[in-house]
Input
Amino acid sequence: MLVSTVGAAAADQAGAQPIISLRTATFGYDERPVISDVTLDVSPGEVVVVLGPNGSGKSTLVKGLLGLNDQLSGEVDLFGVPRARFRDHARMGYVPQRHTLSGSVRATVEEIVATGRLVRQSWLGRQSATDRQVIARALEVVGLGDRAGIDVSTLSGGQQRRVLIARALASQPDVLLMDEPTAGVDTASQHVLAEVLARLAAQGVTMLIVTHEMEAFSDLVTRVIVVDGGIIAFDGPTATFVERRVDVLHEHHTHHHDDEPHDDRSSLPGAPRSGPLDPGRRPRD
Output
């Protein structure tokens, strides 16, 4: 079952505490605020889309939750634990923005997905039968079970995005945080990605998705957050957003590009610092 792939995310969520809770939180880089005074909760089972123009701070918000930039003020709790004391990083599945996976290291699809399992393995790093089962199931969930032995560099952009999602699922997280999962892929691939996310949502998986384009996810989104000028300009259910879209969202019909200041901390706390998916320094993040 999918539930066993994504941890407790699809469990009974009645009365559960928020997975993510922020109170007047400010995030930035080198003491410079990028997004300020954020107060919000994300509850189990929600599918939340974060929208906003380039440079608005939406990616900084997600990276701040993961400890990939500076928390300058406020409170951030993850699963009821202050972020500074949070250590169970496997519960936070992160799908970073990537236009393509690195071609500098040869690796199969299965090998890439297996790196997401490292946080659940013993210090010896040996795969158990359970590890192999979870990896195979994660590949099946994203529709790449028949591509396990293929060199990842030969896949299309949309397929590579699904590899990244499978890698995140391999850690059996309770929430998936995705940064621009459909950027740089064609319309057909966007629909396939949306179908993958719809399957996860149907199982009750909590998701926080940063995107410029909500259309691909419109049928599964339960809530919309709009970030503009470094603040939360809107936070509400999808139906309310649709009614107020013209007022709360500045439309920018430009191709997405990385729009946040670069920060050298490119991996999650407790995770390997580099690997086949980390091609090295990027000029911007």
Q: What stands out?
A: Residues 1-12, 252-259, 262-285 have pLDDT under 50 and may be disordered.
